[in-house]
Amino acid sequence: GEFRVGNYVLKAHRSCEHTRKHLGLSQRELELLMWVGAGLKKREIAGRMGVTPATADTFRRRAYAKLGVGSGSAAVAIVSAYLAGTDVETQSLKPAF
User: Fold this and answer.
1) Are 34 and 25 in contact (CB under 8 A)?
2) pTM score of the predicted model
3) Is there a contact between 60 and 46 (Cβ–Cβ < 8 Å)?
């Protein structure tokens, strides 16, 4: 798919559906992260999604928890990397040393 962000059109290597399944996100959670990546604020995202800001916040919290991140930039980095064709795998919870 194609996504418009600022002055750019981003062309995804993988489909949103494939990305959603690989990362374990719901359709609404992925949709919210795409709007976050486009730079929209919470109220704007809620309006685009046709939900209340509280519901949008619920989608955000669930998406962050599933991805193991605490910020929109980290969540968008994971989704964007996978859409672009990067191998994104679940990290082991064991220490790396």
Assistant:
1) no
2) 0.83
3) no
CA 17 distance to own-chain centroid:
12
Q: Which residues contact 62 (CB under 8 A, 6 or more apart)?
A: 26, 29
In angstroms, the CA 71 to CA 10 distance is 22
- Single-letter residue type at 59: F
Residue-wise pLDDT tens digits, 57-66 = 999 999 999 9
Residue found under tokens 């989704």: 79
Query: Hey, CA dihedral for 76, 79, 85, 91, is it positive or negative?
Result: positive
Please name which of 32, 13, 28, 31 lies closest in space to residue 82, comparing C-alpha atoms. Answer: 13
Q: What is the SS3 assignment for the chain?
A: CEEEECCEEEECCCCHHHHHHHHCCCHHHHHHHHHHHCCCCHHHHHHHHCCCHHHHHHHHHHHHHHHCCCCHHHHHHHHHHHHCCCCCCCCCCCCCC
